[in-house]
Amino acid sequence: MRRALTVLHVIGSISPERGGPTGAVRTMMSALARRNIRVDVVATDDDGDTRRLDVPRGRFVEMDGQRVRYFPRQTVKYELSLPLERWLSRNVREYDIVHTHGLFAFPPLAAAWHARRARMPYVMAPHGVLDSWGIKNKNTLVKTTSIRLIEAPLLRAAAAVHFMSDLEATRAAELELGIRPAVLPLGFDFEAAGDMETQPIEALADRSKPVILFLSRIHPVKRLDVLLRAFASLRERGAALLAIAGDGEPSLVASLKHLSSELGIDGHVHWLGFVEGRPKQWLLSRATVFVLPSASENFGVAIVEAMHAEVPVVVTRGAGLAGLVDAARAGLVIDDSVESMRGALARLLADETLRREMGQAGRRAVDQHLSLDAFGNRLESLYRAVLARTHDPAAAVSRELPS
Q1: Are the C-beta atoms of residues 203 and 241 closer than 8 Å to each other?
Q2: Lateral strand order in the sheet of 60-63
Q3: 215, 302 in Cβ contact below 8 A?
Q4: Domains (ranges, CATH) in the chain?
Q5: What rounded mean pLDDT belongs to the chain?
Q6: In the 3-class helix/strand/coil scheme, how is 60-89 assigned residue by residue?
Q7: Per mean pLDDT, which range of 12-21, 62-71, 138-147, 373-382 is the poorest?
Q8: CA atoms of 214 and 292, how far apart (whole Å)
Q9: What pLDDT score was predicted for residue 288?
Q10: What is the pTM of this model?
Q11: Which of 15, 106, 146, 310 is most exposed, with the fewest beta carbons within 10 Å of its own?
Q12: Dihedral of CA 198/203/209/212: which sign?
C-alpha cells in the first residue's frame, strides 16, 4: 500500500474573479481529495482589483474537502504578502511536494524559492503566462527581464513544469528555458452541476432567437472586439442575440460597449457580467453556439463546459483545446480574423443538424478525455514520479488528450 501524500498548493488569489487559475486549483483539490491525498492551499485575500475577500485569516478553513489558508495582501500588483512568506519559511518542509500556480506574482515565486532552498521537490504551473502572446503584448521588457533573473532559475530547478495543453508547452518551449515539461489537461466533475436547479436569465428568456455565447474573463487576449465585429457583419444578426458573460477592467469593458454602439448592435448584445452557479448552467443550456476568439488560451475551461452542455464551439487556433475540438469534431477551429469568425457563425446558425452532431461529439469527448478521476490519476502519477526522483516525470503521466 502506497503511503498517503500531503501537497501544498500556492497561488496568489483563489478568488473566482481571477478566472482560470482559481478554477484549476479547485479542480485539483477535488481530484486529489478523491484519491485521499491531503491538499493545503495558501493564498492572499485578493478578490480582484482593490477588493479583499471576506474570509478568516491566520487559520485554515475547509473548501472542496481540503483546506485553504488566506493571508493579507500588502500590494495589488504582484500580490505581495509578507505574512504568507513568513508562513512558507516555517512550514514548507511539512509537505511532500509543493505545487505553485502562476508567475510574475509574489506567492508562487516565494513558495518555489523556499522549496528550492529546503531542497524539496516542487512543480510549477505557469497557467499560460509563458506563452508568446503574453510575453510579446504586455510589459515585454519587464517580463523578459523578470523571466531571465527570477522565474527562469526557479523553473529550471523545478521537478516539473505543469502545462495544461500541448499548445501551452510548445509556446513556452520557444523561450528555451531548459525546463522539464509535463502536460496534464484538467479534468471535470459535472455530476453535481447536472443535479443543480438552473436559474433563467431574464434578458434571454425569449427562446425565439438563437444565442451566441461568450463566457470568459474580458481581457484584450480574448479578442472580444473580433467577435463584436463578426456579429455586426452577420446577415443573421437581427435574428440572433449575442450574450457576453464575463467581467474585466472597467475601461476595457466600456471601450467594448462603445464599439458595440458604434457597430449598431446594442439592441442585440446583452452584457451579463460575471456569471456562475445556476445562472451559468442555464446560460449554457440556452446557448446555440459558444465562441472563444482568444489569441492565446492555455486551456479554456469554458470550452469544456460548453462541450459538456452539447453546445457546438467556435475557437481560434490560439486555444489550448483547439486540437481536441478539431479531433472530436465538436466545433470549428478558425484563425483570429473577423472574416473567419463571421463565416463560422453563419455556418452554424444555418445548420441545425451540424450543431446537434457537433454538440453530441463534444459531450462524448469530454466524458472520454476530461473526467476528474482520470485527471486525479495523472496528477498523482506525476507527484509520485517526482518523489521517486524520476529523471523524466512527464513520462510517468498517462496522456489521453488528442493534440
Answers
A1: no
A2: 60-63, 66-71, 38-44, 6-13, 97-101, 122-125, 160-163, 181-183
A3: yes
A4: 6-189+371-396 (3.40.50.2000), 191-369 (3.40.50.2000)
A5: 90
A6: EEEECCEEEEEECCCCCHHHCCHHHHHHHH
A7: 138-147
A8: 6
A9: 97
A10: 0.78
A11: 146
A12: negative
